[in-house]
Design goal:
Bound molecules: heme C
Largest sheet: none
CATH class of the largest domain: Mainly Alpha
Order of helices and strands: HHHHHHHHHHHHHHHHHHHHHHHH
Structural class: mainly alpha
Number of helices: 24
Helix content: 55-70%
Number of strands: 0
Radius of gyration: 35 Å
Number of domains: 3
Length: 486
């Protein structure tokens, strides 16, 4: 074969292969995406997989030329429109909103993530999909504003995410509330501006209008109750002080209760070993709870349990078990309703108790049996001495009620007052913000949470021990059902 012959057959062969390949690509393109074939003849990085994911994207029904306007001819006479201009024709609001945003400005100033505009949040234009059902809009923001590495690379404020998550908004949203705002409900999804600029919807002057979308009648004072500031000595000295005091109070209370229980158990075991049993504990043969008192106590039991079950999950965040617990109540909104109904009933039960006392007072029969007295301290001292085996007599209650009952009664009264008052303020935050100092509502929220922990822990540790597990009473002290201890 001569050299020219050889080269001619090589060319023919190449053309045949090219035709075959081109035909295949065209077929691939036509099948998967009408109109795409013309482009795929040259843009061979578009294989079947890529075409497939494009077809399944939000723009699977759009043709290549919808975004790549004017690129039908080759050589291409128009430069690619660029990400922003490719979108504005169909998504005018989003594109124009984004055009004036901090993010766009960041892109212009050299922040790489935003140099491809929409891509920073929506991803590759050929694969971006509509928001999937489980996806929240804030999942987009978290990529930069929650991610520590991105925060330091982009120089972003670091307290933003945590402050949101610890707000009532964040807590409820993580538990599935759709009414509670995510980032975009306050900041918008595209026209996001710096709250420091006067033109921003969230500037100090305009902020109340954003809150008023959900909180009717929101005032400027109210609008200041939310902030992303970190909760530290510099930004929120009062709140950190309250946190410390309450933490100490909780630790002290639980240590005290725990120590008393441990002492009692110690004495029980030691007395068994040393064969120094105590005479039976003193059991009151008289009626200790009247029927009215038993009903009051019953209302308190039911409402307390309902309040704990519907309230504590907010403090625990987005754990699955809490979500399931709330599902018991038909979801986070129904749980909020149950919480309010239970809170109201508890307050009514308290008013009933006060009214009942008042009635007795008017008739000159005010019982003073719950009043703390010096005898209570003596009883307490005797009890400790008995526990320490320094004494071999069961301690006697000083009056009808002993120090344990009095501690429970007054601790409960304190807890109820604190929870009722702070609960009402959180229920009507706009009204409360009108007369609380700046930052006050946040402290109210803190107190409500800490006191809830204190009350729950005390009831389950101390009260349950005293009325159920305590030696001599197990399985229970019957007063709450029969009115008498045995
Ligand atoms: C005949 C071959 C050919 C066809 C057909 C073709 N292109 Fe191109 N295209 C190219 C080449 C070569 C380049 C790179 C050089 C240039 O920009 O001219 C390019 C560049 C591009 C770019 C810019 C790429 C970049 O990295 O910035 C886009 C976008 C593009 N083409 C889209 C299309 C679309 C959409 C179609 C179908 C309507 C199409 N092309 C059809 C050959 C082609
Ligand atoms: C929703 C609008 C949109 C549609 C529809 C679209 N593109 Fe693109 N395409 C873009 C954008 C925006 C870019 C630039 C991306 C970048 O700069 O990162 C791009 C980039 C490209 C590029 C260059 C870079 C690359 O990824 O290869 C090619 C080639 C291309 N598109 C081809 C196509 C073809 C072929 C189709 C149809 C099957 C198509 N595009 C459909 C928006 C679109
Ligand atoms: C030719 C018109 C057109 C162009 C140009 C276009 N889109 Fe779209 N876009 C659509 C249509 C139609 C939908 C699907 C809407 C639907 O199904 O509800 C869509 C959906 C979307 C969605 C999903 C919205 C949702 O409901 O979750 C996003 C995000 C999006 N486009 C971004 C872009 C971006 C970014 C660009 C530019 C790169 C762009 N689009 C260019 C028409 C277009
Ligand atoms: C800072 C992140 C971010 C950037 C940048 C961004 N988007 Fe979005 N976009 C979102 C979020 C978040 C949503 C979802 C909003 C929602 O569901 O409430 C969204 C939703 C959309 C939707 C659905 C309809 C709507 O308006 O809610 C379209 C269309 C859209 N974006 C287009 C664009 C286009 C076009 C660009 C570029 C010009 C762009 N987006 C840039 C975050 C962004
Ligand atoms: C790709 C990373 C990225 C994503 C995603 C992102 N941001 Fe940003 N954001 C930035 C950067 C970078 C800045 C800093 C701009 C500046 O300070 O110049 C910024 C600034 C802001 C600011 C103004 C901060 C200030 O100090 O004034 C707000 C508000 C904001 N982002 C909210 C959001 C919201 C809401 C979302 C989700 C819809 C979001 N961002 C998604 C990177 C991101
Ligand atoms: C209840 C409305 C609301 C929600 C929800 C909200 N923000 Fe803000 N955000 C504000 C207000 C008001 C400011 C200005 C006051 C401040 O900085 O504390 C602000 C400020 C910011 C700033 C600037 C902070 C700074 O120190 O410069 C960023 C960034 C930001 N928000 C991002 C987010 C992100 C991301 C989310 C979602 C996790 C979010 N925001 C949720 C209202 C909100
Ligand atoms: C998208 C709606 C929405 C927006 C916007 C909004 N909130 Fe809220 N906010 C809620 C919901 C829902 C709750 C939870 C109320 C409940 O538990 O019943 C809440 C609770 C609160 C609470 C706690 C009260 C409580 O019930 O425990 C405060 C304080 C608060 N918001 C302040 C603000 C401030 C300040 C703004 C404006 C910067 C704002 N909110 C914007 C929906 C919103």
């Amino acid at each position: 074969m001569s050299a020219p012959m050889m080269s001619r057959s090589w060319v023919l062969g190449a053309v045949a292969v090219w035709l075959a390949l081109a035909g295949q690509t065209a077929a691939l393109g036509e099948e998967a995406k009408p109109g795409a074939a013309a482009c795929l003849e040259c843009h061979d990085t578009w294989d079947a997989g890529r075409l497939d994911s494009f077809s399944r994207s939000a723009h699977g029904q759009q043709s290549c030329l919808d975004c790549h306007t004017g690129m039908a001819e080759y050589p291409h006479t128009t430069a690619p429109a660029g990400p922003f201009a490719s979108c504005v024709g169909c998504h005018e609001n989003a594109a124009k909103g984004f055009a004036g945003s901090v993010h766009r400005i960041a892109g212009l100033q050299g922040v790489k993530a935003f140099q491809k505009d929409c891509k920073a949040c929506h991803g590759e234009p050929h694969v971006m999909t509509k928001r999937a059902p489980g996806q929240e809009p804030e999942d987009v923001c978290s990529r930069c504003h929650e991610n520590k590495a991105m925060q330091s690379r982009l120089g972003l404020p670091t307290a933003v995410w945590k402050s949101y998550e610890s707000s009532v908004h964040g807590q409820k949203r993580m538990l599935g509330s759709k009414k509670s705002p995510g980032c975009v409900d306050c900041h918008g999804s595209h026209r996001i501006t710096s709250p420091a600029s006067a033109a921003s919807e969230l500037s100090l002057a305009n902020r109340a209008q954003v809150c008023a979308r959900c909180h009717e009648g929101a005032t400027r004072m109210f609008s200041l109750t939310f902030s992303h500031d970190p909760i530290d000595d510099k930004h929120a000295p009062a709140a950190t002080l309250v946190s410390r005091i309450y933490s100490a109070l909780i630790v002290f209370t639980l240590l005290f209760f725990g120590a008393m229980i441990a002492l009692e158990l110690f004495s029980l075991v030691a007395r068994k070993l040393l064969r120094r049993p105590l005479p039976h504990p003193h059991i009151d043969p008289e009626e200790r709870f009247t029927r009215s008192q038993r009903v009051q106590h019953f209302v308190i039991i039911l409402t307390f349990v309902a309040l704990v079950l519907t309230g504590l999950p907010l403090l625990a965040g987005s754990l699955d078990s809490e979500t399931r617990l709330l599902a018991l109540f038909g979801g986070v909104e129904t749980a909020a309703l149950v919480h309010r109904v239970a809170g109201t009933l508890m307050i009514l039960a308290t008013l009933w108790h006060i009214g009942w006392l008042w009635g007795l007072n008017v008739r000159g029969q005010m019982p003073l049996s719950m009043m703390p007295a010096l005898d209570d301290f003596i009883e307490f001292r005797e009890q400790v001495r008995t526990f320490l085996l320094l004494r071999d007599e069961a301690p006697k209650r000083a009056g009808k009620y002993g120090w344990i009952e009095k501690v429970e009664y007054w601790a409960f009264a304190w807890g109820l007052g604190v929870m009722g008052l702070t609960g009402l303020m959180l229920w009507f935050p706009v009204a409360a913000a009108a007369w609380l100092p700046k930052g006050g509502l946040f402290i109210v929220q803190l107190v409500h949470g800490f006191e809830a922990i204190l009350a729950t822990a005390s009831v389950f540790l101390w009260h349950f021990y005293q009325v159920h597990l305590k030696p001599g009473f197990f399985p229970m002290n019957w007063t709450w059902l029969t009115g008498k201890e045995k």
